[in-house]
Amino acid sequence: MAEDSIKKLTILHSNDLHGDFLPKEVDCKEVGGLPRLGGYVKKVRGEKENVIYAMAGDMFRGSVIDSEYQGLSTIDLMNTLRPDVATIGNHEVDYGFAHLLFLEKCAKFPIVNANLFITMNNARVFTPYINLEVGGMKILFIGILTDEVLASTRSEKIIGSFIDLEAAAKEVGIICDNYRTVRTDMTVLLTHIGLENDIKLAGMLDPDWGVNMIIGGHSHTFMDKPEVVNGIPIVQAGTGTGIIGQIDIQYDQEKKTIEDFRWKCVPINEDTAPKDEVLEDLLDSYRTQTDSKYKRVVTRWARKLTHPSREQETEMGNLYADCMAWEASFDVMMFGSGSIRKKELGPVIEYQDMVENTPFDDTLHMVELTGAQFRQMVQHLMRDDAWVGETEFYQFSKGVRIVYRKSTHTIEELKFNGEDITDGMRIKIGLQKYHFSNFDEFLGVPLEEVKKNMKPRVVATSVNNIIEEYFSTNDGLDAHVEGRIVILD
Fold first, then answer.
1. What is the pTM of this model?
2. Which of 148, 153, 325, 458 has the fewest CB atoms within 10 Å around its CB?
């Protein structure tokens, strides 16, 4: 091979930062934080010849620095971090679709997405791809978004997305057929659909489209090595600023082949990454402004509580579900597991902790189900996809007991207040707006059928208003896993 035809390329990648801007203290060592993440990117850019930094969605949410400024602060920080390309994730639409378009105008880096479009004329909302030229190489990046964006924008009737992987794969083919030329050296899918869907998508791609790799996000997967499907390596870098993915490539430009592909995840800490002082100063300016408002103690729990997994009953899940059912007009609260963002919290709860743990403040709705509909709903929630993070899962308030056997797909016990739930029983359920708006898809029961039992109604205008009042008037709160949801193999 000709020596001068061999090119080196390094692709750094992050995903699901979720406002994880501040460092943490772990074993007396500073871990993560945006200044050190930026410091690592800056260091690699200084040490390596050809470097691209890609962001695979969900920059927003999870931090009061983000929510206080509705993402403007995050865009400002990202402009200083300087990714070369980004795609949007499902949480990028949390502040509304029109606001996302405004934020995109504020971004000084390209944001690509191929499968979000205006339903009236099928016009794409974003630029679907970008060709980045680095070191004489041309790298085609295509952005693909999870169909969860539809769940977040049900009220946005003019916005749509290709909702299945087959259609997304077809869109990749259209872009590759039209915009991948003889000058294109590599094609990268920058996705936000989760690892399981990345694996399925890779299997659907025609080898002639020339996709070389998938850099993903959404499922917060920490990987030891790439998944390789259909000859395509798939990588993802967990979540937050405590880790970054790094791909080192040797590429033969004459043969148009990747001769060497090496991937690793690098921990971001004081041993691996210096601080970017400019980023730290900018972050401090935002933190100073938010601390005066958010650094006040709301309550003290009896101890630290945990929420280790969305797909199981948890201590914090029980606490929040019971909080919503406190003095409520309904019988059972089904609190979305994904609404709880921290894996552990307490015992001292500051206002900042409270709003960062449940950042999706929305209205609270009440519906009435028959016992038969409740059973149908539980059966739907416990389907196989639930155990790989592919579906919504819920935390139930006190009084509910569900025993489900995965191997036989059967509900072995379904009780409320110690009594078996019969088909004719009536149960009033509390749901956050996000889940009410996606009732049929998330709960597997037609909302139109449920409306025949009782007209649904809004019973509270703010979930976080209830949480704050409950916390501030109840000191020493505690919760335990007590067998509300029992999953048998």
1. 0.75
2. 458
Distance (Å, rounded) from C-alpha 85 to C-alpha 129?
10
Q: How far is CA 252 from the centre of its chain?
A: 36
Angle between helices 277-294 and 34-47 (to 10 degrees): 170
Domains of the chain: 3-288 (3.60.21.10), 297-488 (3.90.780.10)
Residue by residue, DSSP assigns 64-112 as: HHHHHTTTHHHHHHHHHH--SEEE--GGGGTT-HHHHHHHHHH-SS-EE
pLDDT, one tens digit per residue, over 60-106 is: 877 888 888 888 999 999 999 999 999 998 888 878 777 888 999 99
Instruction: List, in order, residues 6 or more apart from 373 with CB less than 8 Å away.
Output: 445, 449, 450, 453
The β-bridge partners of 189 are: 142, 214
The amino acid at 205:
L
Amino acid at residue number 364 = L
Residues 225-246 have pLDDT tens digits of 999 999 999 999 999 999 999 9
Beta strands 410-416; 400-405: pairing state: antiparallel
Q: Are 444 and 392 in contact (CB under 8 A)?
A: no
Sheet strand arrangement including 400-405: 419-420, 410-416, 400-405, 485-488
Which neighbouring-strand residues pair with 362? none
Helical H runs in 303-428?
315-325, 351-357, 371-381
Q: What angle do CA 186, 54, 63 make, to 5 degrees?
A: 160
Give the span between the Cα atoms of 57 and 79, in whole angstroms. 15
Residue 232 and residue 170: Cα distance in Å, rounded?
17
pLDDT at position 1 is 46
User: Per DSSP, what are the bridge partners of residue 10?
Assistant: 51, 248
Length of the chain in terms of residues written:
489
Q: How far apart are CA 464 and CA 141, in angstroms?
A: 39
Tokens representing residue 78 in the block: 């990202």
Residues 6+ apart with CB under 8 A from 56: 13, 14, 15, 16, 86, 87, 89, 190, 191, 192, 215, 216, 217, 236
- Which is nearest to 236 in space by CA: 16, 37, 31, 25? 16
| DSSP letter, residue 158 | T
Strand ranges inside 231-376, DSSP E: 232-235, 243-252, 257-267, 297-300, 305-306, 332-336, 344-345, 348-350, 364-370
